[in-house]
Design goal:
302 residues, 2 domains, 4-stranded antiparallel β-sheet, 2 helices, 13 strands, 45% strand
């Protein structure tokens, strides 16, 4: 019993001492104790712990909520979106005219890697201009099991048959196109001080130059001979597949440059984007008149 009483007395005295130190602790705007030579003799400072109540907590105490004090656009980061393309009348059903361009949008993914941005304040740190540099990799998954040929005067594609005359169904049939992008964006944001508590909307254009493209097919069998067949069932070419995967790099009559209309909107670090090309996907009179688009979300921004 004596030992219990001594322990309780010790706890009571310790609590009283801490309460007195708490009263001595200076309060600051953001609710946390900071080092200050004027309080060098405070026991709170000597103990070096946070002793101010959470009632004075401020969002800016988090690293991602710190003050910006400058206009900061929403370009740099990593983005993920769905790819597609439409006809001039915004139709995505190509029917019998361009059956080889029918695609699976759910599998057609675009990845944007934007390493840096340059921001210019235009009006009171709410309206600004953003540019920078970005890399775009767009995947277009086809559903028709066609093989495109790039060594013709214009883009052509043929169905594939095996040696038994059966049409071949591929595991993967896609085109991958890569661009180096230059954004020219105007952005309005409601809160120029804290990015974590700011609504933003962006309009502009994104210019791009194609830096690579290739088609990729994955077959069920390797070391097989296949036939390219036109719409009338005539065999126009023969080719052999030594591996399951066939990758063929080339231009495929794609336009070397592009200009996209860009729209972005978001709150805090959540950023949604949509790009629609103002230029044709393929060179004029060398392929179908199609206009690519991308709709997605920013995964990481900085």
């Amino acid at each position: 019993m004596k030992l219990t009483g001594i322990f309780l007395l010790f706890i009571t005295l310790s609590a009283t001492s801490i309460a007195q130190d708490f009263k001595k602790c200076p309060f600051y705007k953001h609710g946390w104790h900071r080092s200050d030579s004027s309080h060098a003799n405070d026991s709170c400072h000597q103990m070096n712990y946070c002793c101010c109540p959470m009632g004075n907590f401020d969002m800016s105490d988090f690293p991602f909520g710190k003050k910006k004090n400058k206009y900061n656009g929403h370009w740099a980061g990593i983005e993920l979106g769905f790819s597609g393309y439409t006809t001039p009348d915004f139709n995505m059903d190509f029917g019998s005219r361009y059956p080889y361009m029918n695609m699976n949008v759910a599998r057609s993914i675009t990845v944007n890697i934007n390493p840096f941005e340059l921001n210019v304040n235009l009006y009171k740190k709410h309206l600004g201009f953003t540019t920078g540099l970005g890399f775009q990799i767009s995947n277009y998954y086809f559903t028709g099991n066609y093989v495109m040929l790039q060594d013709s005067a214009s883009l052509v594609a043929y169905k594939v048959q095996d040696q038994q005359g059966n049409y071949v169904s591929m595991k993967v049939d896609k085109m991958v196109v890569s661009y180096l992008n230059l954004p020219l964006l105007f952005e309005y944001q409601t809160n120029s001080r804290y990015r974590v508590n700011s609504f933003h909307v962006t309009l502009g254009v994104i210019a791009g130059v194609r830096i690579g493209s290739y088609t990729k097919q994955i077959y069920d069998n390797k070391e097989e001979t296949y036939f390219l067949v036109d719409d009338k069932g005539n065999k126009v070419a023969t080719y052999e597949v030594e591996h399951y995967m066939v990758r063929d790099r080339g231009a495929y009559h794609l336009s070397p440059f592009k200009v996209d209309a860009a729209f972005r909107v978001g709150w805090s670090y959540l950023n949604l984007f949509a790009n629609y090309s103002l230029t044709q996907m393929f060179q004029k009179n060398q392929g179908p008149e199609l206009y690519p688009f991308v709709v997605g979300i920013s995964l990481v921004g900085w």
